[in-house]
């Protein structure tokens, strides 16, 4: 990774049940050159070099305390260590949050509270995000997996980071979590009752399976007005398409309609294509 050498664990091979087929990433995935697809940036070497390596036998309570005090930590052995440290940190923050909220509530009873409690909640939410950015995780770019035993398989890693120039890059814990969740949704698909097929949103693309009230309104309007958007010159612009729900809904209800899906996020444009 161009930084100080740190020994990383290689994921253990284990016998597992045969997994169901996963969606295949298209061969023309626009990952480079240039900012065609957004992705989390690897951690700079300067930050990696200043981090505390968390290896086998480390005291996770002490690691959590170090993170709370502003220290960056690099996990090198077990993915569970990362999960446990995040749990310990969140528990301690929750206690602090509850104590702070109680103080704010008591001040409000005395007539001097105001918005203190909501500010308290927002402050601790921002702290959780900032702390997660101090936890670092190594990634094998060539193999496309996290270099920690017990880590989940994240298919995006190889495709998104194969042009970085290094065999190993380091990502922040919250970015790894986001990639993992996004990969799960990409593989499993997002199902909408008004579409005959699931959508497979690419990483970084906005989607929401619920609520669907606004989609239902559009569907009902199209069904109630068969002449709408049905002429030979009819066109529709899906501005801010996200994962393309509106575009696919329109195509299903109006097969002859010319639809232009647009989004400021290149990941969304690629996802719909």
Quick take:
This protein is α/β, with parallel strands linked by helices. The protein is built from nine helices and seven strands; from the N terminus they run αβαβααββαβααβαβα.
The span between the termini is 33 Å
- Low-pLDDT stretches are 30-35, 111-115
- Percent of residues in beta strands? 5-15%
**Total beta strands:** 7
Helix/strand-derived category reads alpha/beta
| Number of separate helices | 9
What average pLDDT do the residues reach? 82
Round the Cα radius of gyration to an integer and report it.
Answer: 23 Å
The description of the largest β-sheet is: 5 strands, mixed
* Proportion of residues in helical segments: 40-55%
* Broad shape: elongated
Order of helices and strands: HEHEHHEEHEHHEHEH
Would you write up a description of this structure?
Helix 3 packs antiparallel against helix 4 (116-132) and helix 7 runs parallel beside helix 8. This protein has helices spanning 45-49, 60-68, 79-109, 116-132, 156-161, 173-188, 213-224, 245-253, 266-272; strands at 52-54, 73-75, 135-140, 145-146, 168-172, 235-239, 258-262. The strands form 2 sheets. Strands 1, 2, 3, 4 and 5 form a 5-stranded mixed beta sheet that branches. Strands 6-7 form a two-stranded parallel sheet. The radius of gyration is 23 Å and the shape is elongated. By secondary structure, the protein is an alpha/beta fold. Mean pLDDT is 82; it is low at 30-35 and 111-115. Helix content is 41%, strand content 11%. Strand 6, helix 8 and strand 7 form a beta-alpha-beta unit. The chain is built from 9 helices and 7 strands.
